[in-house]
Amino acid sequence: MASEKYVGLKKLVKAIAGPYLYEVIRHVIAHKRIPRLLNPVTFNDKTAHRKLYDHNPIYPIISDKALARDYVAERLGNDILTQLYFCGDNVEDIDFDALPDSFVIKTTHGSGPDYIEFVHDKQQFGEDALRKMAQELIHRDYGDTTNEWWYAQMIPQIIIEEMLHDDEYGIPLDYKFFVFHDEVKFLQVDFSRYGSHARTIYDREWIPQDFMLKRKKGPVTPKPQCFSEMIRIAECLGKGFDFIRIDLYCVNDKRVVFGEMTLSHGAGWEWFRPAKWDRIFGDLW
After folding, report:
1. Class of residue 265 by CB neighbours under 10 A (exposed 0-12, middle 13-18, buried 19+)
2. Rounded to whole angstroms, what are the CA distances from 90 to 45, 170, 181, 198, 210?
3. Rounded CA gap, 256 and 239, in Å?
4. Residues in a beta bridge with 117
5. d(Cα 31, Cα 227) in Å, to the nearest integer?
6. Are 158 and 134 in contact (CB under 8 A)?
7. Residue 283, CA atoms < 13 Å, CB-side half-sphere
8. pLDDT range class, residue 265, cuts 50, 70, 90
9. Cis peptide bond upstream of 100, omega within 30
10. For the chain, percent helix, then strand, then coil, each to nearest 5?
11. Beta 116-119 vs 103-107: how paired, if at all?
12. What is the pLDDT of residue 243?
């Protein structure tokens, strides 16, 4: 209930202030500085500028969880994708009996933990609970309170897909590659995204970095055996963009799986410590 009230408050502020002033307010809260939206300098300035002024028609396609699968398959084939069990906008069409024991439910038009549900045992979860959860997810809007206009262009659907499992980490580590002008410059590795969230930043040579990006520093882990392949995949998918984040998994250190393509990391509201790295990333963009 408190979360819903908070979302409602943000929608009210945006409705009163308008997208531009709302972006300024959110930026000041996050970064304690007034953003340069018309002549952006930092990474987060440029993220805000993209949200307000860049209306590239490809953005709703690559951000849509269903359409992005087609985009990736055309470039890299289907092997990099999770197994898909269902995709549609009518939850009554879900064939509960045909689903495996465990799976993941997502929306095509959202991002983050509020738009995903892990089902570890469908019999314990139950068919009625599944349809209710799917119905709730599909009716959640996204992008309005973050100014990410491309999400509003999507037709909300439910995706039910393979649940990935890593023998060492359980939920596989989430590798997020920052691709600037066709080249991976940095990546972050997230730990315990649904628990005590931490992240470690590396450069493209797998050298851990001293700065933080919103989260506390996580542990330093061995470089994946398939790291070179992951770099190649990220740069293939990021080709043609001045900046994009490509999220990948490396299951059991051998199977690379596509996660998503992200146009506005943290909606432009994630701080760097030291703050100078916001400008360094901005210069790369």
Report:
1. buried
2. 39, 31, 39, 36, 47
3. 19
4. 105
5. 33
6. yes
7. 4
8. very high
9. no
10. 40, 25, 35
11. antiparallel
12. 98
Sheet with strand 84-88: strands edge to edge? 84-88, 158-161, 103-107, 116-119
In the chain, the N- to C-terminal Cα span, in Å, equals 39
pLDDT at residue 58 tops 80:
yes
Tokens coding 169: 């980490």
Single pTM value for the model? 0.93
pLDDT tens digits, 5-44: 667 888 888 889 899 999 999 999 999 999 999 999 999 9
- DSSP H helix total and E strand total for the chain: 8, 12
Residues 6+ apart with CB under 8 A from 128: none
- Which string of b and e fits 196-228 if b means at least 16 CB within 10 Å? eebbbbbebeeeeeebbbebebbeeeeebebbe
- Looking at residue 180, its pLDDT comes to 98
Give the other-Cβ count within 10 Å of 89's Cβ: 11
Round to whole Å and give the CA distance between 4 and 17: 20
